[in-house]
Hybrid cluster protein-associated redox disulfide domain-containing protein
Amino acid sequence: MEQVTKDTITKDTIIADILDIAPDSAPLFFSIGMHCLGCAMASGETLGEACEVHGVDFEEFMEQLQQYIKQ
């Protein structure tokens, strides 16, 4: 499995992997209704799946996530 970095986050990246490298991004996930970051779903759900389930545009969320990570 490829190491996840802030520059390699895609639609297929597991949410828990994002939180491992960017724990400060948790409030962004909370702000769009992704409150179960510590549950089993976070360790198996991809960012794309989560956006779909929560009715969030993936591209827009990615822009926000990248800006949040760069702060």
